[in-house]
Each structure stands twice: as C-alpha cells, then as structure tokens.
Design brief:
There is one protein chain. By secondary structure, the chain is an all-alpha fold. It has one helix and no strands. The chain is rod-shaped and about 60 Å long. The N and C termini lie far apart (66 Å). The mean pLDDT is 82.
C-alpha cells in the first residue's frame, strides 16, 4: 500500500510540474496573442 501511495504521490507531483509548464506556455501564448492583437484593435478604433 505504501508503494502504491508513493507512486500516486510521484504521479501527482509530476502532473503538477506538467501543469506549471503548461500554465507558463498558455500565459506566454495569451500574452503574445494579446500583444499581436493590440495594434489591430487600435487601428480598428481609429
């Protein structure tokens, strides 16, 4: 049982690391997208 719980903890920690990396990529993508679309929005408003 302790072996299984240890494996589950390692899996959870690994998934947490993946979530952090994915979160970083999503934030970077959204930031880039927002930066690319900001000038377009300004030109449309003008």
């Amino acid at each position: 049982v302790s072996g299984e719980s240890l494996a589950q903890q390692l899996d959870a920690q690994h998934l947490g690391d993946l979530d952090d990396e994915l979160h970083r990529r999503v934030i970077n993508a959204l930031t880039t997208l927002a930066a690319e679309q900001a000038p377009a929005r300004h030109s449309h408003s003008l």
